[in-house]
Write a structure and sequence with these properties.
- With about 140 residues, this protein is α/β, with parallel strands linked by helices.
- It has one domain: Rossmann fold, CATH 3.40.50.360.
- It has 4 helices and 5 strands.
- It has a 5-stranded parallel β-sheet, with helices on both faces.
- Strand 3, helix 2 and strand 4 form a beta-alpha-beta unit.
- Helix 1 runs parallel beside helix 4.
- The longest helix is centred in the last third of the chain and has 14 residues.
- It is globular.
- The mean pLDDT is about 90.
Length: about 140
């Protein structure tokens, strides 16, 4: 399966280690995986992928707010995301991370994506384990 892993850390920086671990787990199952940086990606390539995993971090410890780049990337794909199978992953950073995960899934479903899996990421090892479960 051809999978896009969208990396949306709270602030612009290199791909976080837990995102690389998630992709590594997917690749170990034989999937072709591309990591896309939400801060630089425009979203036009997303409709070509068979599966999309969005990984994000809340912007603050309270309130469940997500980086605005997520909406920009998903909107950039146009109507090509309707019915697309996907997963939502959020790095656990504070007490309201579950609220942020719900917000992420809502943003994805608003664009027509079918979120068939979601999880909080606690560590790199867990992220790699989660990646091995995709398509399994």
């Amino acid at each position: 399966m051809w999978i896009a892993v969208i990396s949306a850390p709270a602030v612009r920086r290199a791909v976080p280690p837990y995102v690389a671990a998630l992709a590594r787990g997917m690749e170990s199952r034989g999937h072709r995986v591309d990591i896309l940086d939400a801060w630089t990606e425009d979203g036009h390539r997303l409709p070509a992928y068979e599966y999309i995993a969005v990984t994000a971090e809340p912007v603050s410890l309270f309130g469940g707010k997500l980086p605005e780049v997520i909406s920009r990337v998903l909107l950039g794909a146009g109507s090509g995301l309707g019915g697309k199978r996907s997963a939502a992953f959020l790095k656990k950073t504070g007490p309201f991370t579950s609220r942020a995960l719900g917000n992420l899934m809502g943003a994805m479903e608003h664009e027509g994506m079918r979120v068939n899996w979601s999880a909080l990421i606690l560590s790199e090892a867990q992220a790699e384990y989660l990646g091995k479960q995709i398509g399994g």
